[in-house]
Amino acid sequence: MKTTHSAPKHKVIILVTGMSGTGKTSALNELARRGHRVVDTDYDGWSEYVDGSGWLWREDRIEKLLAEHVESALFISGTVSNQVNFYPNFDAIVLLSAPLEVILDRVASRRTNAYGKTSEEREEIIHYVKTVEPLLRSGATYEIDTRKPLDQVATELEMIANGQAL
Fold first, then answer.
1. Triad 29, 83, 44: Cα angle to 5°
2. How far apart are CA 155 and CA 162, in angstroms?
3. Angle 3-17-94 (CA atoms, 0-180°, nearest 5)?
């Protein structure tokens, strides 16, 4: 399949969500390399830890980000419980997924993020795959299995942004 890495001419906002180890950061890095605007909400103060609720998006910052985006594609990555409040603002919600064994292998070997290295964190990931991933799947408009090569995952995300059916 011949692909072009062109940005859509119109405003489009895509949420890329999924469990730890599914490749969200890698996909966003590849999209950024291709010239797309990306925001990983795990970093730079987009999220904050709230006692009793866990990690949440800072709604004021997310609202401003969404309101100020005016053209081409914006890919936002994150997995927090209050992201559902913003679902109406996204043109697509893309769940990145992989089998649990693949996720656990990835988090054990990755060097860019320390999360998932301890047995407690691995048990937490297993729990979240069982309890949180089904909720993400029910709200997703697309799902991409990230056992595919990274280049293909990024191309599929571009296709979604361009309104091309997968």
1. 45
2. 10
3. 45
